[in-house]
């Protein structure tokens, strides 16, 4: 992947949606900077940028619930990513839920 096509925002970040590659469930939304994107491409495991801690965050380092990259796409504008992943342990959310999107509005 040519990361020069990715448009990072004024904070150097791009949003990325992690989606289960088997059933399409949206598991989480996080952010990447250039370094985390490069590390993700090299390792084939998701590495994000933690906006709160301001550090690289290799998903699963503490929980063991890593995310193995199957496919990685950027949108038509180059300002958002979708990662189709294999969620090891089947838990993506820090709350212990499979997906971070479990709060229903309607």
UniProtKB/TrEMBL annotation:
Enzyme class, spelled out: hydrolase
One Gene Ontology term from the biological process aspect of the record: L-histidine biosynthetic process
Binding-site positions, Zn(2+): 76, 93, 100
Reactions this protein catalyses: 1-(5-phospho-beta-D-ribosyl)-ATP + H2O = 1-(5-phospho-beta-D-ribosyl)-5'-AMP + diphosphate + H(+); 1-(5-phospho-beta-D-ribosyl)-5'-AMP + H2O = 1-(5-phospho-beta-D-ribosyl)-5-[(5-phospho-beta-D-ribosylamino)methylideneamino]imidazole-4-carboxamide
SUPFAM superfamilies: HisI-like (SSF141734)
Subcellular location: Cytoplasm
Chain positions recorded as Mg(2+) binding sites: 75, 77, 79
Required cofactor names: Zn(2+); Mg(2+)
Role of this protein: Catalyzes the hydrolysis of the adenine ring of phosphoribosyl-AMP.
Subunit text: Homodimer.
Protein name (Swiss-Prot/TrEMBL): Phosphoribosyl-AMP cyclohydrolase
Source organism: candidate division WOR-1 bacterium RIFOXYC12_FULL_54_18
Encoding gene, per UniProt annotation: hisI
């Amino acid at each position: 992947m040519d990361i020069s096509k990715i448009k990072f925002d004024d904070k150097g970040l791009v949003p990325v949606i992690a989606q289960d590659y088997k059933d399409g469930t949206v598991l989480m939304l996080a952010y990447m900077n250039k370094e985390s994107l490069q590390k993700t491409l090299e390792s084939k495991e998701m590495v994000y940028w933690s906006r709160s801690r301001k550090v690289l965050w290799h998903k699963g380092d503490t929980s063991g619930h890593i995310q193995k990259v199957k496919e990685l796409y950027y949108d038509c504008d180059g300002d958002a990513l979708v990662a189709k992943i294999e969620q090891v342990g089947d838990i993506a959310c820090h709350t212990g839920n499979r997906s971070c999107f479990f709060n229903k509005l309607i």
